[in-house]
Design goal:
With 418 residues, the chain is α/β, with parallel strands linked by helices. The protein has helices spanning 4-31, 38-44, 51-78, 88-99, 110-120, 138-147, 153-162, 168-174, 189-201, 204-214, 273-280, 292-300, 303-311, 334-345, 376-379, 398-413, and strands at 104-108, 127-131, 220-223, 230-236, 243-247, 258-265, 284-287, 315-319, 352-356, 382-385. The protein is 47% helix and 12% strand. The strands form two sheets. It has a seven-stranded parallel beta sheet with strand order 3-2-1-7-8-9-10, sandwiched between helices. Strands 5-4-6 form a three-stranded antiparallel beta sheet, with helices on one face. The chain is elongated and about 115 Å long. It starts with a helix and ends in a 5-residue tail after the last helix.
Length: 418
């Protein structure tokens, strides 16, 4: 809890004060003439008992009063910050553990990254989310086109997931205005909030940082690049022998066919320095889960990000999706996901693949389980476990995933932050 040193300092100071007060009383007792109150003072000082016993009694009473006073003071001071139903000691202890938690960088976008962050924040405050800025659909796309700023959608989702209080404020941040007429139609309040802060502060990255302070975020959400990039794909369409070029992150999943290759335009945008610094200093780098071609790869296609991952001494893990994504990874197994990553950014981008091995209950008709074909474990380091969310079986369970990742990190490096 980080209070032992202060408790010992308080105890030492109280002891010295008590010694001084005892010397004063003893002096008064020895020099004062016989009066009626001296027998009362003698009784109050328990002189009829042996000195060791008196020392134990008075010392125990004093220590109990000190402990009670300190706990009461702490309880009063931190009461506004303790959630209902939580104990003070438990709250302080958890806070200290998370402060000393591992430095973890999560790379991706969409709901997969938000799910991962929601689980990891239970174990560490030293989290950095590196998020794609290639989104061009929905509210984010409209803001990007009309205001000329980077799309805030994925960043907004990560800020809400990392918030200390995911109740009212996060719900407000995620609120989407209903469809209808007018400029507010379909916009997310959080997107508009970040956009307004961008105008006020004069920079997108400062707006994201201020939004994190409003939501009480422990950790940081960082764009992979500050350049206005566009995701482009070559796709093989049904009944066609040649490839078709599709422009725009939102257009790729809705185009019928198979993704052959994706890239960013302009090519080779520089990485955001703070993101690169976080990756290089990380104890663990987690790639995924999320949409393979439209959430994960847009980050890795920033050359500085990919090179920083390779150069980092952190433990690098790729979290494979539980289920295929319509329009992107139809029919893909785990090895297909890995091969797609390696085809775009080369080998050596991760040390371990974490994949699901629980393929029940049934999934909706539009998706299939991402399974591990026989022999894949001979070609790639794959760790299999149950990662399924019971309520949404096509999504990862945030707590299960975070626990597994922290256990794997501890097996590799030993306890961190002790």
């Amino acid at each position: 809890m980080g209070v032992k040193r202060w408790f010992l300092l308080t105890l030492a100071g109280t002891t010295l004060t008590g010694v001084g007060f005892a010397i004063l009383i003893l002096e008064v007792y020895r020099t004062t003439p016989e009066t009626w109150w001296l027998p009362l003072l003698s009784a109050a000082s328990l002189r009829f008992l042996a000195r060791p016993l008196r020392a134990i009694i008075f010392g125990g009473l004093g220590l109990g009063m000190i402990v009670g006073g300190i706990l009461g003071l702490n309880r009063s001071l931190i009461k506004p910050f303790v959630k209902p139903g939580k104990k003070v000691v438990e709250t302080i202890s958890n806070h200290r553990k998370r402060e000393r938690g591992a430095r973890i960088v999560a790379i991706g976008g969409g709901h997969g990254l938000s799910t991962l962050l929601r689980g990891l924040k239970q174990y560490s405050y030293n989290l950095s989310a590196v998020v794609t800025v290639a989104d061009d659909g929905g509210s984010s796309g409209r803001i990007r086109r009309e205001m000329g700023i980077l799309p805030p959608g994925d960043i907004r989702n990560c800020l809400a997931a990392l918030s200390n209080d995911e109740a009212l404020l996060s719900q407000l941040f995620q609120y989407r205005f209903p469809d209808g007429e007018g400029k507010m139609e379909g916009h997310s309040f959080g997107n508009l909030f970040i956009s307004a802060l961008s105008e006020i502060t004069g920079s997108f990255e400062e707006a994201v940082a201020e939004s994190g302070r409003v939501l009480g975020v422990q950790g940081q959400v960082l764009p992979s690049t500050l350049h206005d990039v566009k995701l482009v794909a070559d796709m093989l369409l049904p009944n066609l022998e040649y490839e078709v070029r599709v422009e725009g992150e939102s257009s790729i999943p809705v185009m019928p066919g198979k993704v052959r290759h994706v890239w960013l335009e302009p090519n080779s945008p520089p990485g955001f320095p703070q993101s690169i610094r976080a990756i290089l200093n990380a104890d663990m780098i987690v790639i995924g889960p999320g949409s393979l071609y439209t959430s994960i790869l847009p980050n890795l296609l920033v050359p500085d990000v990919a090179e920083a991952i390779r150069s980092s001494r952190g433990f690098k893990v790729f979290v494979c999706n539980l289920a295929t994504q319509p329009g992107e990874t139809d029919g893909y197994d785990c090895e297909d996901h890995i091969m797609a990553l390696e085809e775009h950014v080369g080998r050596g981008i991760f040390d371990l693949v974490v994949a699901n091995q629980q393929w029940q209950p049934p999934l909706p008709d539009t998706v299939q389980w991402v399974q591990i074909e026989p022999g894949a474990e001979d070609r790639y380091p794959i760790y299999q476990t149950n990662l399924v969310d019971r309520d949404y079986p096509w999504r990862h369970d945030s707590i299960k995933l975070a626990q597994i990742l922290l256990e794997l990190l501890q097996e590799r490096t030993g306890p961190l932050g002790e």
